[in-house]
């Protein structure tokens, strides 16, 4: 068998070279619009700041928008497309309940189109806006490689099939992220985004009242926290209100999320499992103990997530209006 080794090596070398050349990030470039639309990133940043003044939930909405864009047909702005009489779009899937931030993207796009028509993709605007959301919520600034093109397909069923569920266990979360080329550690790191934003009661209510026949209340849920959640989400209430994902620092993008997990205050089952599962608990502990390392890893993981299955070059289009195909 030993004589197969050189063959294997050269095969691997060829494979590695070609896979590097094909990897999406090499097509995306920091400063992509420097010559063609130099104000693009500033316009987006100002749109985010303006929206933030009226709504502290904007950073969480924009980060989620980018995530939900990237996990469904890649970061191609497909989440922005409106439904038509013939098609239910991603944004109207029940998996996208409460999704927002569209007005910020529209405001930025309108200003950008006025300056440099037909140049800046909606998918890139989402990526820039998510970065600005991270920074304005207290996270680390990072440069966003750009050059994404906008997709022409948006199907509600794709959202349901690709977005992680709020009752996923670690095996399911790992598999869900692996399908997008993201590691278990990146999954744990990105879950820290749940240190801001909120969730509808419907995403976790089962944990309070109907968890299992033996335990109507999820035993991994802190009982003090559970009592509070029951006041927010009464069993008989059908209005489906929202609750902060991080009960301690709900608008600061920080590692309090991991501190909460330690004391049973992960809101979603898919949050708390990161602590109750040994394979991810060590990672969550690291993020708890080393906040600046986590912030750095979070920024890096956002860039990686932002390169998932992107359209580049002549693929797709540059939409004129982010809600409608050209
Ligand atoms: C539950 O939360 C309370 C504070 O709200 C804390 O004092 C307690 O230690 C937590 N319980 C567990 C098991 O971590």
UniProtKB/TrEMBL annotation:
Domain Plant heme peroxidase family profile: 27-326
GO molecular function, one term: lactoperoxidase activity
Keywords: Calcium, Disulfide bond, Glycoprotein, Heme, Hydrogen peroxide, Iron, Metal-binding, Oxidoreductase, Peroxidase, Secreted, Signal
Cofactor remark from the record: Binds 1 heme b (iron(II)-protoporphyrin IX) group per subunit. Binds 2 calcium ions per subunit.
Cysteines paired by S-S bonds: 37-116, 70-75, 122-322, 201-233
Active site: 68 (proton acceptor)
PROSITE patterns membership: PEROXIDASE_1, PEROXIDASE_4
Residues bound to heme b: 194
GO annotation, cellular component aspect: extracellular region
Transferase as UniProt keyword: no
Reactions mediated catalytically: 2 a phenolic donor + H2O2 = 2 a phenolic radical donor + 2 H2O
Annotated Ca(2+) 2 binding sites: 246, 249, 254
Residues spanning the signal sequence: 1-23
Similarity field: Belongs to the peroxidase family. Classical plant (class III) peroxidase subfamily.
Function: Removal of H(2)O(2), oxidation of toxic reductants, biosynthesis and degradation of lignin, suberization, auxin catabolism, response to environmental stresses such as wounding, pathogen attack and oxidative stress. These functions might be dependent on each isozyme/isoform in each plant tissue.
Protein name per the record: Peroxidase
Source species: Trapa natans
